Amino acid sequence: MPSEKFTYIESSAVPINIENVDTDQIIPARFLKATTRDGFGDNLFRDWRFDKNDQPKVDFVLNNEKYNGNILVAGKNFGSGSSREHAAWAIHDYGFKVVVSSFFADIFKNNALNNGVLPIQVSSEFLEIIFNEIEKDSDTSFTIDLGKQEITISTTGQKEVFEINSYKKECLLNGYDDIDYLLNIKDKIEVFEKRN
Amino acid sequence: MAGKTLFDKVWDAYVVDEIKDGPSVVYIDKHLIHEVTSPQAFAGIEKRGLKVFRPENTVATPDHNIPTIDQHLEIRDQLSRFQVNKLTENCDRHGITLYGLNHPFQGIVHVIGPELGITQPGMTMVCGDSHTSTHGAFGSVAFGIGTSEVEMVLATQCILQPKPKKMRINIEGKLSTGVSAKDIILYVISKISTSGGTGHFIEFAGSAIRGLSMEGRMTVCNMSIESGARGGLIAPDETTFEYIKGREFAPKGGDYDAAVEKWKKLKTDEDAVFDKEFNFDATDIEPMITYGTNPGMGAKIKDNIPHESEIEKSELNSYQKSLKYMGFQAGDKITGKPVDYVFVGSCTNGRIEDLRVVAEFVKGKKKAENITAWIVPGSKQVEKQAKQEGITEVLEEAGFKLRQPGCSACLAMNDDKIPEGKLAVATSNRNFEGRQGPGSRTMLASPLTAAAIAVTGTIVDPKTML
Ligand code: SF4
User: Fold this and answer.
1) For residue B155, which residues of chain A lie inside 8 Å, CB to CB?
2) Distance from CA of A100 to the nearest CA of B (A)
3) Which end of chain B is more exposed for a tag (fewer CB within 10 A), N or C?
């Protein structure tokens, strides 16, 4: 999906301080019957967010007005389990542009990047600081500078540099996607096929 | 220069191009698709005005979202019917082979690939499903992808992927009676955690692995993804070549002999170096079961649920949340807990060998009153063979309900849901909150353990019943 260009973000964040959040929680399987990419945001974290009568669970963070913004902060090993890209679509559709964690599952990381959602891996110490700051003040804002590969806690000025390979960075900055790239090298692919 | 690992040998042979500081362009031999993760990919290429680049390299089957009863009738659930029909339309339009419902080759993607001989050593394979790692059991590089990547493969037969790191897990020694491939992998994940393999491809090696059947090897590679790994693989050997021989799409005659000669070279060089290596002793492995809500929360059935003090600090939140969800207490005895459902099936343990194990155990016995037991064969061919071998009859006499092939209660997209609050012992691969239906609770175990529990009605170590 060719996505919007991604450059600089300043926003408060929504904290989910739980490790190993799997994609079945992000979007339960019963919502995977759709044949388009749209509308998954309504069911993001469905079973943590709503009870069986579809009433919002008040103790879940997405139902707490205090927390908002387009950054999701989660415990380590976010996005494990099923490869369903619907998880990335749900996060994107809900309005998150960034997910911060100390560790991401591989397939989720690829899926997020392919949908213009930036997964930022920070150290576990920095993640703890972020959670603490949000706990102290839910309005704490963060800036994310993709060009400099930096995430900064605006209130304290603490920052950390994050990794992203330069190809993916270019893609995000320019709104390109992998298929455009592959289509451009089709002749190379055909040469490879003839050789093998 | 250091030698190459099996993974390097296969991967390197398929690199079409490399992007500086970026991913590699990898050519894909075989692409498997199903109804759930492909419709948006077809829509994507059509929006770009493209046709599928190499339709002959893709094979399709519906499995995730299909009913497991009355498969000869039209699907009742409207959304499911629409999604399955969409797969048929897309395959028709793009000239892709489809094994639809009621075709004798239909089944779970990862069951039919190997049983039809589509999966072969040294290949690159992908599918929009994380358990594509199953096919690594043949010495292929196989991994799960997202829908955008499915679209890439449809459009160009290639995928952009950073090269994973390499890990080897050696398991030496002889497994004791009652311990199976499923116990090996549950044990490994309990040791290395659900993120221990992240960023890596795992080669499983050692005498305990070499001693496994192909079905057992597939179970191990299948669940390698649950350690976070991109995939798992095992060097092909005589067991592999024997399994492939004579299958529908396997090379035949002289071609087969030539292929075997090539496949024999697919092994890690003596002097190859891995980024990480683990060694386990097969005699330490006992029948395993999970007690929490991720596959890494496994223990020996005869043990107790670990105490907080035994859990790493960084896992504490998820440990507490898990026990609360499961309704278990730290330090609880695992055996003796009453169970409501037993589910035997899925791409992890829904093969003929798994059904044989269950049938052998329950022959002449009856399931416990409190248990609802479902057996869901992994494919039409498994179903057929189970009938021919008399397995179906044995299972039905023991009170098991046999359903038709599909993913079924592994992910509960269809009606096969474990009701809220009920406890299921499942031979599948995921015990996440609500995985088998909203509010359902799942404990993962081997087919033998599941059979023993079906009979006793409570959690039991099958070793005590052999
Ligand atoms: S059986 Fe379960 S794990 Fe396997 S492909 Fe189906 S849904 Fe995925």
Assistant:
1) 179, 182-183
2) 16
3) N
d(CA B183, CA B286): 7
Measure B95 CA to ligand 1 centroid, in angstroms. Answer: 25
Integer-rounded Cα radius of gyration of chain A: 18
Instruction: Give the pLDDT of residue A196.
Output: 86
Is residue B457 predicted with pLDDT exceeding 70?
yes
Domain residues for B359? 333-465
Same domain, B417 and B433: yes
Distance of CA B155 to the CA centre of its chain: 27
User: Domain containing B338 — which CATH number?
Assistant: 3.30.499.10
Closest residue by CA, ligand 1 atom 4: B347
B262 and A CB contact within 8 Å: no
Counted domains in chain B: 3
Q: Pull the structure tokens for residue A80.
A: 């494990």
ipTM score above 0.90: yes
Identify whether residues B20 and B74 lie together within a single domain: yes
Give dist(CA B208, CA B251) in Å, integer. Answer: 29
Q: What is the pLDDT of residues A18-41, one digit of tens each?
A: 999 999 999 999 999 999 999 999
- The model's pTM is 0.96
| B75/B190 same-domain check | no
What is the dihedral angle through the alpha carbons of B180, B186, B191, B195, rounded to the nearest 10 degrees?
140
> Residue A127 in contact with residue A151, Cβ under 8 Å?
no
Are residues B157 and B172 part of one domain? Answer: no
Length of chain A as a residue count: 196
The length of chain B is 466
The whole-angstrom separation of Cα A93 and Cα A88 is: 8
Across chain A, how many H-helices and E-strands are there?
Answer: 8, 7
Whole-number CA gyration radius for chain B: 21
With CB atoms and an 8 Å threshold, state whether B22 touches A166. yes
